[in-house]
Amino acid sequence: MPIDRDEVARKLAQIPVEEHLVVRRTAIAAGITRHLVTAMLKEGRLHRSLTRFKPALTAQKKHMRVEHVLSYIDDESHEFESMENVVHIDEKWFNQDTNKRTFMLLDEELPPQRNRKSKNFIRRPCFSLPYDFHRKCRWNGKIGIWALTKEHVTQRSSQYRPKGTICTRNIESIDREVYKRF
């Protein structure tokens, strides 16, 4: 007895799009078999769609970016400055969300919009490392690598730790004040 594909499509349409990431997860969320999800992909009733983060920059922010770049142009020679007197800060981020996500969507479904004002607002731990490109350390010697996290005392106990244990959390937004503290 063949299974009605329209009924399967209705079940798939009822679950949130965020559950349409992989075949197994989609099948479990819809309460159908993986074979049906795979068959619908092969038949073309279900298709894969790739989404990426899109910057939600305002016109003011775009203007500020251009002004920042233009501030490094020498007024006399009209060339970019050599920037040999600048200490660069290298960052290593461990993302808790990915830039690319593939969703399996029905024909009438649209991929979800994934806008971010900036990638700084994605939850992720950050490690900061200041360095001098020319290896001429001319500042106060504060060189090293730091995890940009904060410590907090747990308020409840769990199966992994008792109440009152000191744990670390990511700092939500890394800005100028956070860099000054570290």
TrEMBL record:
Looking up InterPro entries in the UniProt record yields: RNaseH_sf
GO molecular function, a single term: nucleic acid binding
Lineage: superkingdom: Eukaryota
Q: What is this protein called?
A: Transposase Tc1-like domain-containing protein
- Its source organism is Phytophthora nicotianae P1976
